[in-house]
């Protein structure tokens, strides 16, 4: 059980202005997004830039979820269309990149070459689509969105962030537990809940300097989501195999699907123990009466 040191946290906060904390966090997001867009405009299929762009958008979505939940009386903030379009277009391309990596790691070389030829038309379509939306990207619209985001965040008392965000994290973790209790655990749904929890905690750990307070729980959550990320990559490809018809005399397709199903069952069993433990570790704010300290 982790104890939240509010005295130390409030001492730190008192020595920084609200605007400096918020502006630093949003500035990093804005600059990182802009950098990845510039790279992708030149190299639309650059894997690291594509992955980093999508990662920043997911962080933004978690932040929007947080703000729209804790300030419900205001009009909900939404991701600007210019960013949403790139995110959607990049999804298909990212799936193809992941599939190529899975095939390269698991299947023999001739199968990999055949897969590249088979999926080349899809690759060309995805590349053309993302080039189109990148060309239409509006930096002005993105800047206006971040300005609105800054104003909305500025309405919050920074020292209240732990008490506002941690209940949302716990709620997402509990939704993950519910998904695990199904007869066939919905691992993809679980992954979404856990990733959103991770991004919410990341705001506190990385940008509001609470790493000494909730570092252990955050690290445990990252390890779980990393495993789910590997599982998801293989799940995407397993679903692809089920939709396609390949000549597979040696049975590589069925072997991969069979191993993936076994790994999925094992992962669900492990998560059924790990996630409740993680929830218990984050219950300090209610058990220690944290709400009354802010």
From TrEMBL:
PROSITE patterns: CHAD. It comes from the Bacteria. Residues 15-284 form the CHAD domain. It holds the Pfam family CHAD. This is CHAD domain-containing protein.
């Amino acid at each position: 059980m982790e104890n939240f040191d509010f005295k130390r946290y409030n001492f730190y906060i008192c020595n920084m202005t609200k605007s400096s904390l918020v502006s630093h966090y949003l500035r990093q997001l804005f600059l990182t997004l802009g950098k990845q867009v510039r790279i992708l405009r030149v190299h639309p299929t650059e894997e690291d830039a594509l992955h980093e762009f999508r990662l920043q958008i997911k962080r933004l979505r978690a932040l929007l979820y947080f703000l729209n939940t804790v300030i419900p009386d205001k009009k909900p903030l939404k991701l600007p269309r210019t960013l949403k379009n790139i995110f959607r277009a990049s999804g298909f391309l990212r799936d193809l990149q992941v599939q190529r990596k899975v095939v390269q790691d698991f299947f023999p070389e001739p199968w990999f070459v055949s897969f590249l030829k088979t999926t080349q038309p899809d690759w060309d379509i995805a590349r053309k689509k993302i080039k189109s939306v990148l060309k239409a990207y509006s930096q002005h619209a993105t800047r206006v969105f971040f300005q609105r985001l800054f104003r909305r965040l500025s309405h919050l008392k920074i020292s209240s962030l732990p008490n506002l965000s941690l209940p949302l994290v716990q709620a997402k973790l509990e939704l993950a537990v519910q998904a695990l209790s199904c007869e066939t655990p919905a691992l993809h749904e679980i992954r979404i809940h856990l990733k959103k929890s991770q991004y919410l905690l990341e705001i506190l750990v990385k940008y509001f300097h609470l790493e000494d307070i909730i570092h252990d729980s955050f690290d445990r959550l990252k390890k779980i989501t990393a495993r789910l990320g590997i599982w998801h990559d293989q799940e995407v490809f397993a679903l692809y195999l089920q939709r396609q018809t390949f000549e597979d005399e040696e049975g590589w397709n069925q072997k991969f699907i069979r191993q993936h199903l076994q790994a999925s069952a094992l992962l669900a069993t492990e998560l059924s123990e790990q996630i409740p433990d993680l929830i218990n570790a984050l219950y300090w704010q209610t058990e220690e009466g944290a709400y009354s300290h802010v």
